[in-house]
Amino acid sequence: MASPALLCNNICTRFWVSSLSQSQHQMQLLQRRRLSVKFQAQDKASFRFSPLVCLAARREDKEVVLVENDGRKRRLLQILLWAAEGIYIFWLFLLPYAPGDPVWAISSDTINSLIGLSLNFFFILPLINSVVVGIHLINSPVLHPMSEGLFNFVIGWTFMFAPLLFTDCKRDRYKGSLDVLWGFQMFLTNTFLIPYMAIRLNDEETESIPRKPSQLGSVMINGAPIVGVIGGAVCLISALWALFGRQDSNFGSVADRCEFLVSYLGSERLAYAFIWDICLYIIFQPWLIGDNLQNVQKSKVSVVRYLRFVPVIGLISYLLFLNRDEEP
To answer: What does pTM read for this prediction?
Structure first.
């Protein structure tokens, strides 16, 4: 029979072992709960963060798609422009199918007409020979006012393109001289402007250094409002001259002059080419102005944005509201 002391010792030992095992079990449960809470917190954090990661990935994918689509559009536009250049040269200069004579078979009458129109450039010589001034050092050739009006209208519009080209944000992609380009444009119009429109769509060089405007470019940029006023006035006078000019030379009424214009366009290669130039200018003017609205005074951007689609007037508005304080 066990003694009381031995029984007490056994009971205490069992109680201590039982308490120790319960404490270990509670510690294990507590650790499991902590791990469970930690994993749940990580899951919640990852769940909250995953939409942000997905959203950023989607944005990057959209940007890549937009860049690819933009590159495809530019390449397509370049193909169309170079095709238009080829058609322009072959159809208007070389092939005999358009109205009038091709370059290789140009007649003396066409040459004389071109010389006469050039002498009446901007109506300067007719104005000097007029009754108001009365100077006759060189007599102005008397041509049909419709042909004079059409010629000077296109030249006046071309004149206003100079400040627009010199402030074009993509002009540095064209490695040639803008002075020469615009000079040829004044005499051969869109023969040289179409290639420029195609070249400016090339990819931008990462290490390209912006070129400073030439002396001619600086004059055109600083005098852009004056260029706009002169060019706009020439275009307006050209329209009025075509309808009402040379009343003393018996060129008939407005209806007679419109009838002459139709026959003139159908028989003269130069006049026929001017219509092509007008149609291309109607496309190129809003295109170039739309790409360079950042050059316009901030308070006038909305006005120019809408007026750019109006032939001649949109270009005048760009030149009048050009921000000349900032270097283009």
So the answer is: 0.79
